[in-house]
Amino acid sequence: MKALAGLAARSAWNRRGTLSLVVLSIALATLLLLSLERMRSDVRESFAQSVSGTDLIVGARTGAVQLMLYAVFRVGSASNNIRMDSVEAIAKHRAVDWVVPISLGDSHRGFAVLGTTSDYFKRFLYGDHQPLVLAQGRAFAGDLAGLYDAVIGAEVADRLGYRLGQSITLSHGAGGLPGAEHADKPFRVVGILARTGTPVDRTVHVSLEAIEAIHLDWASGATMPGVVIPADQARKFDLKPKQVTAALVGLKGRVAVFAVQRFVANYADEALMAVLPGVALDELWQVVGVGEKALLGMSAMVAIVSLAGLVAVVLAGLNERRRELAVLRAVGAGPRHVLLLLALEGLLITVIGVAIGLLLTIVLIAAAGPWVQAQFGIGLKLSAPSATESALLASVLTAGLLASLIPGLRAYRLSLADGLSPRT
Fold this sequence. Notes:
By secondary structure, this protein is of the alpha+beta class. The protein has helices spanning 2-14, 16-48, 64-72, 84-91, 120-123, 154-160, 208-214, 257-265, 277-316, 322-330, 335-376, 387-412, 416-420, and strands at residues 56-60, 82-83, 96-102, 107-108, 111-116, 125-126, 130-131, 134-137, 149-152, 167-168, 187-193, 203-207, 218-219, 222-223, 243-244, 246-251, 272-275.
């Protein structure tokens, strides 16, 4: 076996020019399979760890996935706001422990702005029930003295180079349009959160009262002509919010989750809905599951085409090697040895291609991981292959071995006389 393996390696090396293209195609197929699987698993893990400890998310009646996306992941926008008195009514329910209202819609240089209360920094958990931690500074107090205080996520600080005491200006909506900035009411960075790997890293946090203050002289998404309310004068107004985008709800006991959910759904004064984060995520995976399977299927087809190329290359060179194989037969190699030789050669090519593909995957994750984290908040982690990834690698190797048996069986049937006799 050892001699045959060495012979197979030398034979493949003699045809390295042609076989290198096959190795490259197998490597790229492996890269595609592994990178898609790693992206799929890391995306799911990142989404699942974005919020924990929150039993319900309450918002205007819409789709569960849509509510989850804009309330937690800052993707999309709310179809409608909910009244603050509705949030207060939910907070008074006997099974509710705490409620944290949130207000979305504004931005700062491409990052979402979230208006909330100071309880947000105590109640919001992520990952395995991990609390938010301030790397620098403090949280805003939510009072009039610190009306224009802001706490920024780690990604905001790193990307924009912000430090404590920095003055920043928020923009109305997505920003980018003339006159969209709330330039008359600048904020001061008083805290920078430690990195969480969640949308919190890409968010600017201010108080709900601050959101009201910067919109005092705005109406219907535009500044009111002739009305200018200076930043200091805004403190004299009633800044209690009338509406918010959504609310995070924590319960005294998980057993009451469906009772509170029904209470919210049947709330008479406003059309509301409450979703369980885990259930909403399951619905999201069902929506994107078809796309995941389609991408994985395309990757599998690329792998099959690559292995078909291996079969084609070996078969194409088989006629040129018939005399070589006949010589092996003449010196004592049996048909089984010829079959095993070509099978080992195909397997060796597949192993090299898979190894290169695995190496390329590691390099790609190491190189693109920080960029993907910065752009999409998805942490691509370098780790040992998961059970699914190991199964994919084993499948490619098995398929490569089976594919190499096709030319091996063809060579198996070549007779000694056929190989040594001249062909006309």
